[in-house]
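It is worth pausing here to work through a concrete case rather than discussing structure prediction in the abstract. The textbook approach is simple: state the sequence, then state the predicted structure, then interpret. We follow exactly that order.
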Amino acid sequence: MAPRDPSLPPGADMEAFVREQMDFVGFGEADGALIRLSAPLVLAHERTLTTALYDRFLEFPATAKFFLKEDGTPDRERLERRKHSLTRWLRETAEVAMSHGFVYYLLGVGISHSHREYGPGGRVPAEFMVGAMSLVQTALARLFQEEMDDPVTALAAAVAWNKLLLVQLNALLLGYLLPPLQESGKAE
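Step two, the predicted structure:
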């Protein structure tokens, strides 16, 4: 594997950035196999997982504001769209699909959350992206603990998912490193 060119920003070659991060966290074939092995269990609970995450967002004013209508009630239509997007991400993650398209999709999600100038709540602070990933990791670890017969396999699956999710979090957070449009000279 050729190293990432350090003279380029990480987002310029997302595939190399992600490969480097996967190597750094020690993500290997065995981790990918464990994720694929546990994928049917995760996908069988995808609705429960996504609903729990968005319910948690609604419990906190700092995150609820992104999902409320002008009258202060939850925007159920928006929440369903977001759950659908999260389900898509979960399915792709369960396939360990770190393809060209998917890694740039992650960067796009990071940019859309970090440079959001429209919609309820505005820009999503980075700490909530980190916190959301932590909630997903915790939910998966609990799911494996409760549903897998072998505790050693459950722990190994949780570790594998954690590695991959943290690599993805790094890709998502790259969006927060880009300057706002007005600072980059692209907006008038």
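Step three, interpretation. The first helix runs from residue 14 to 24. The domain at 46-177 is CATH 1.10.490.10 (Globin-like).
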